[in-house]
Specification:
alpha/beta; TIM Barrel; ten-stranded mixed β-sheet; 10 strands; binds iron/sulfur cluster
Length: 345
C-alpha cells in the first residue's frame, strides 16, 4: 500500500482543523515560541519575530541541497518563511530572516500558502520542507487543512532552529512527519551572545526530546530510500567550538541513544555580521571538524550523514534571487554540498 502522511487521517477525522484552532488561539497573546511575547498577533501586533497574523513566504522552490535521503532525485519542496525567532550573527539566510521591513512585502494569504504546497507537489517534490516554520506554526496548519482537502499527500519536514515550544510541538504530533532540528549551542551564554535567545540549551533539548517522543529513533524510508517519517538532528560545527559539539553529541547519546539519525554539517562560513564578530570570522578548520567526527564515532553513532569538509566554500544561498536562491535547480543537484553516510574511513 502506498505510504500516506500522518496528517491525512487527522484531516479525515476533523482533528487537523481542531489543532489549527488551538494553535491560532495561542496567537491572541502569543506563546507560539519560547520568547512568550504575549502580543496579539491576530489583531496585527508584531513582536520579537516581526510577524503578525498572515504568513510571510520569502521564497519557495525545489531544493537539492538537503540530506540525500530527503533530496532524492526531485528535491525537497522548500518553503522559506520570512523573519525568525533567533538573531544569529552568522545567519546564512540573513536576507530573509533579518530584513523584516522588506519581508512584509512577501506576506501571503493562508489560501496562497496552501496553493504553494500544492504547486510544489505538482512539480514533483518529494516532501514539503518548512524552513524556519516556528513563528508561523498555526498558519501552516491552517493552510495544511486547505491543502489536504485539495489532495496534498507529501510528508512535512519541520526544518527548525530547535528553539521551539513543547506545547506547540505537542499540537503538531501526527501532523509533522519529519523533524529536522538544527541543534546549535550547548551553552546558554553563547546562545544569547550570538543568537539573542535565552536558555537555548534547555529549550532546544526539551524540544528535541518531544520530537523524539513523537517519531522515535527509527527513520522510516520508502521503497526508493526516501525518508518518510522520523527525526534527523542537524549540528552545524562552528569555529572555536562555539557550538560545544562534543557536549551536544554526548547529550544526544545520553538522552536519546546512539541510534538516532544525525547530520553533521561543515558548511559554516562567516555570513551576515560574522565577519566582524570575534571567533566567528572564519570557516572551520579541518582539525576542528575531525575532532567532532572522532567524538561522533566514539559515541557509537551509526546513522546519518557527514557533510564534506569543503562545504563551507560551496554552500552560499543568495536570496536576492528569490526564485532560485541556490542557483539553477537543474544544476544544483551537483553543486549542493556533498554528504556521505557515516563510515569510518
Ligand atoms: S512567535 Fe513571535 S510573537 Fe510569538 S512568542 Fe515567539 S517571537 Fe514572540
Amino acid at each position: 500500500m502506498a505510504w500516506t502522511p500522518a496528517y491525512r487521517s487527522l484531516y479525515e477525522s476533523g482533528e487537523l482543523g481542531d489543532r489549527a484552532v488551538r494553535l491560532e488561539a495561542m496567537l491572541a497573546a502569543c506563546t507560539i515560541c519560547p520568547h512568550v511575547c504575549g502580543n496579539n498577533r491576530i489583531a496585527g501586533d508584531i513582536a520579537r519575530c516581526h510577524s503578525a497574523w498572515l504568513p510571510i513566504v520569502s521564497s519557495y522552490c525545489r531544493h537539492f541541497g538537503e540530506e540525500p535521503a530527503l533530496t532524492g532525485t526531485h528535491g525537497v519542496g522548500n518553503i522559506f518563511f520570512g523573519n525568525c525567532t533567533m538573531r544569529c550573527v552568522y545567519c546564512q539566510n540573513f536576507e530573509i530572516s533579518t530584513q523584516w521591513k522588506t519581508e512584509q512585502a512577501n506576506t501571503v494569504s493562508i489560501e496562497r500558502l496552501a496553493e504553494i504546497m500544492l504547486e510544489l507537489q505538482a512539480e514533483g517534490a518529494h516532501a514539503i520542507g518548512l524552513v524556519s516554520p516556528t513563528h508561523f506554526a498555526p498558519q501552516i496548519v491552517r493552510a495544511l487543512v486547505l491543502a489536504a482537502a485539495r489532495g496534498l499527500m507529501l510528508p512535512l519536514i519541520y526544518n527548525t532552529n530547535a528553539y521551539d515550544s513543547v506545547d506547540v510541538l505537542r499540537l503538531l504530533d501526527g501532523i509533522v512527519d519529519i523533524y529536522l532540528p538544527d541543534l546549535k549551542y550547548a551553552e546558554n551564554d553563547l546562545g544569547y551572545r550570538y543568537s539573542k535567545v535565552r536558555s537555548y540549551a534547555e529549550v532546544s533539548h526539551a524540544a528535541v526530546r518531544e520530537m523524539h517522543r513523537q517519531v522515535g529513533s527509527t527513520v522510516t524510508t520508502d521503497e526508493h530510500g526516501l525518508v518518510r517519517r522520523g527525526l534527523i538532528i542537524r549540528h552545524l560545527v562552528l569555529p572555536n567550538d562555539i557550538a560545544s559539539s562534543k557536549e551536544q553529541l554526548l547529550w544526544i547519546r545520553d538522552a536519546l541513544g546512539n541510534q538516532v539519525t544525525l547530520s553533521i554539517m561543515a558548511q559554516y562560513y562567516p555570513a551576515h555580521r560574522a565577519a566582524q564578530t570575534e571567533l566567528l570570522d572564519r570557516v572551520i578548520r579541518l582539525g576542528e571538524y575531525e575532532r567532532v567526527l572522532d567524538v561522533l564515532h566514539e559515541c557509537g553513532f551509526e546513522n546519518g550523514w557527514i557533510q564534506d569538509f569543503e562545504s563551507g566554500t560551496s554552500y552560499r544561498p543568495d536570496f536576492s534571487n528569490r526564485a532560485e536562491p541556490f542557483g539553477d535547480a537543474s544544476a544544483s543537484a551537483v553543486s549542493a554540498p556533498a554528504a556521505h553516510n557515516f563510515q569510518r574511513e
